[in-house]
Amino acid sequence: MPRPRQCRRVAGMPQVTYYKPRGIPMTELQCVELSVDEFEAIRLADCEHLYQEQAAERMNVSRQTFGRILDAARAKVADAIVHGKALSIQGGPVEIAAPTATQDPPCRREGSPEPGRRRCCRRNRPDLP
Q1: Using CB atoms within 10 A of its CB, is residue 29 exposed (0-12), middle (13-18) or buried (19+)?
Q2: Pairing verdict, β 86-89 and 18-19
Q3: Closest to 75 measured CA to CA, from 87, 63, 64, 65
Q4: Secondary element (H or E) of residue 75
Q5: What is the DSSP code string of 21-39?
Q6: Cβ atoms within 10 Å, residue 74
Q7: pLDDT by residue for the chain (129 residues), tens digit each?
Q8: Do the beta carbons of residue 2 and residue 70 sit within 8 Å?
């Protein structure tokens, strides 16, 4: 039996969770699912230009695990772009990190905890937003 996946720390949930090619109806599209931790890996590596070691520390995973997450994420994004598929960002065992003094606070959603407190892992909590 495989070991359960560890919760990965993310800065916040993405504001936009779905992308699709323009002009093609949803009924004709295949969908690629990108997990929230894969989205966060792309954000840290490609948008914030962090080294894998620094990004892995932020996500609370090993550098090797971060590399695997990033490889899987880039492959899914490439598949969606090259083959004209929709891209859905959702799911995965993640926890929302408390904002630091250098980060802007994430948008609060109804039912979210007080500022400065972490949410619990989403793996077993589908009721969380």
Answers
A1: middle
A2: antiparallel
A3: 87
A4: helix 63-82
A5: -TT--GGG--EEEE-HHHH
A6: 15
A7: 887 777 899 998 999 999 999 999 988 999 999 999 999 999 999 999 999 999 999 999 999 999 999 999 999 999 999 999 999 999 888 888 877 655 544 443 344 444 444 444 555 445 555
A8: no
Distance CA 104, CA 19 (A): 25
Which element (helix H / strand E) includes 74? helix 63-82
Q: Which residues of 95-120 are buried (b: 16+ CB within 10 A; e: fewer)?
A: bbbbeeeeeeebeeeeeeeeeeeebe
The DSSP element (H or E) to which 80 belongs, if any, is helix 63-82
Owner of token pair 């004709």: 28
